Amino acid sequence: MRATGVVVAILLLCGQWLAAAVAVAQDASPEIVPLTVEAGANTYHFAVEVADDGAERSLGLMYRDRLADDAGMLFLYPDERLRTFWMKNTPLPLDIIFIAADGRVVHVAADARPFDETMIPSIEPAQAALEIRGGLAAMLGIGPGARITWPQRETPPEP
């Protein structure tokens, strides 16, 4: 019985720590940059959060319960290679748009399922990925070959 009490206390402390960490992450002012998508004859404008270091990329859009149609998160990496994502702790369905170093969309993982821990591969090498509201890429006609641009800057190396 005593061991059960210790386990419960540890779980409560871990839960409080996680809640505090999420609150801090959500209260932090993320860097927001303009992003443009050219899909066929159409151009779309987004204001996206930037995730360009290991901690930001690991947290991603976890724990978010809302995402505006003109918002998203841009994951930047220092090199181009095969990438994988998952939806752990992510309650929103998302479209994950994988982007080559030249800004060309190479793959869209549409409507990734909330909370799913199955790995979602880029299919081709990517240097960036854009997460937007699930279903939006299909609705706007964003697919392989579309072009995505944002203000370029140096991305820190992977840890």
From TrEMBL:
Pfam families in alphabetical order: DUF192
Native source species: Dongia mobilis
InterPro entries, alphabetized: DUF192, Saro_0823-like_sf
Record's keyword terms, sorted: Signal
Taxonomy, superkingdom: Bacteria
Gene3D superfamilies reported for this sequence: Protein of unknown function DUF192 (2.60.120.1140)
The keyword Electron transport belongs to this UniProt entry's keyword annotation: no
Protein name: DUF192 domain-containing protein
Annotated signal peptide: 1-19
